[in-house]
Amino acid sequence: MEERARIDTPTIIRTTILLLALINTTLQLMGYKVLPLTPENVETFLTIVLNVAAALAAWWKDNDIRRSTIVKKKKAGLRK
Prior knowledge:
Layout: H1 9-29, H2 40-60, H3 67-76
Organism: Jeotgalibacillus soli
GO cellular component, one term: membrane
Transmembrane segments: 12-32, 44-60
């Protein structure tokens, strides 16, 4: 019986942070104040920093999202 391939926890966390950052930016561009800060310059700066950090963290590492990639790496011994 073939073992079921699963996405690892760090990949899920990094991808979730990236999605939250993108949602935050979208809401801000639509005029909603997501962060409870009053000066708009600080809010914009924090949103940019959040997006850049999330994007770098999410995709800097080798994220194995597709099941075929996970199975191939497991067979090659590159993944636990």
